[in-house]
Amino acid sequence: MKRNQKENGYIRLVISRGEGDLGVNPFLCKKASVIIIVGDIQLYPEKYYTEGISVITSSLRRISQIALMFGSNLSII
């Protein structure tokens, strides 16, 4: 936070086994990758907390985009 001159913010860590072939064997990658993302917190206006907000809900489920891309053949992922 200090390095990015942030007094208030959030930190997101992304940890990957690193570059290399895809698969379940982690030893195929020589070095793990650690990515640190620092960003501003975007809080809602105070009135949302004191007065509330209007919402609309639906009982319909949205189809995942990945399901639309690959159809029923999800075994290739």
The residue fraction in helices comes out at: 10-25%
- Main β sheet profile: 2 strands, antiparallel
Strand order of the largest sheet: 1-2
Structural class: alpha+beta
Oligomer: single chain
Provide a brief overview of the structure.
This protein has 77 residues and is α+β, with helices and mostly antiparallel strands.
Short descriptors:
2 helices, two-stranded antiparallel ribbon, alpha+beta, 77 residues, 16% helix, flat
Descriptive overview:
The protein has helices at 46-51, 65-70; strands at residues 10-16, 33-39. It is α+β, with helices and mostly antiparallel strands and 77 residues long. Strands 1-2 form a two-stranded antiparallel sheet.
SSE inventory with pairings:
Layout (H helix, E strand, L loop, with lengths): L9 E7 L16 E7 L6 H6 L13 H6 L7
Antiparallel strand pairs: 1-2
